[in-house]
Input
Amino acid sequence: MNRIETLTVNDSPMEVFVFEPEGKGPFPGMVVAQHIPIGHTGLENDTFTLDVGERMAANGYVTAIPFIFHWWPKTEEMAVKRAGVRDDWTIADLNAAFDLLAAREDVDATRIGLLGHCWGGRVAWVGAATNPRYRAMTMLYGGRVRLPMGGIPAIELVDRIKCPVLGIFGNEDQSPSPEDVDVMEAALAGAGVPHTFHRYDGAGHGFQDYKNPDRYHCCPV
Output
């Protein structure tokens, strides 16, 4: 189960879905950066992302998922949101979610991580690069890292990442493509950022999304 807290970020109300483990803690925390929502609605209809929150809580993490598209009406076309998204807004959203977790008595503020799928993978990269308090970051097939979103290309922030990075990618993906993954891995290595990348043959974009039968691909262990 989850509950919704509403934070104000630059005068805009932002819903944050909070998932809590059983027990008293203190627990580690996790900020989850959402992927592009299904249709044009809010997180309440994004069953995949909500399930990520449930799974993290079941594994002992107090988890916060900020609705980073709160800058527009939920019914606004995604093309408008894509064109207007700004990294400075996203950074503010992530910091608000981080601070929400860090202020809780049941969260160990020295053990908060960041995770994101798809669009959220790029968001996770930006978040890790702009908040040195994260202890780990996981990006799952995050594209557009080499592109600017209202600022400089996110990859140019690599030397600011202070935590270990785990990357998970499909070799049939084109956003990020295998070449993009090579560039990201080289950038992390060049900046001295500890990282581990896993790449799976036969897997395309969104292969973890079991809610989408056209994309889901269960890679062999």
Observations:
- The chain has a mean pLDDT of 92.
- The longest strand covers residues 107-117.
- The radius of gyration is 16 Å.
- The CA atoms of residues 169 and 181 lie 8 Å apart.
